[in-house]
Design brief:
The chain is an all-alpha fold. It has one domain: lambda repressor-like DNA-binding domains (434 Repressor (Amino-terminal Domain), Orthogonal Bundle). The protein is built from four helices and no strands. Helix 2 (25-32) packs across helix 3. The chain is globular, with a radius of gyration of 11 Å. The model has no long low-confidence stretch (mean pLDDT 94).
Length: 72
C-alpha cells in the first residue's frame, strides 16, 4: 500500500483489526460509540478521525493508539 494515503492505510488497518477480532462493523461501532456509517467511512479512508476518535477505536481493540499505525 505504498501509494495509498495515510487515511486509506489507517482505515484498512482498523478493518483488519476488527475482522481479526471477529467483529462486525455494527458491533464494533456500538462498542466505541460511533455510527456504523462513520466507521465505514474511516475504514474506506474517507473520514478524517480525530485523535480522540482514534483513542476510542484503539480502546475498542484494547491496544495503544500507536498500534493502529503499525505496518503502515
Amino acid at each position: 500500500m505504498e501509494n495509498a494515503s495515510l487515511k486509506t492505510q489507517l482505515g484498512a488497518r482498523i478493518a483488519r483489526l476488527r475482522t481479526a477480532m471477529g467483529l462486525s462493523q455494527t458491533t464494533f461501532a456500538l462498542m466505541v460509540g460511533i455510527s456504523r456509517q462513520y466507521l465505514i467511512d474511516i475504514e474506506k479512508g474517507e473520514a478524517n478521525p480525530t485523535v480522540d476518535m482514534l483513542e476510542r477505536i484503539a480502546g475498542g481493540f484494547d491496544v495503544p493508539v500507536g498500534e493502529l499505525f503499525c505496518d503502515l
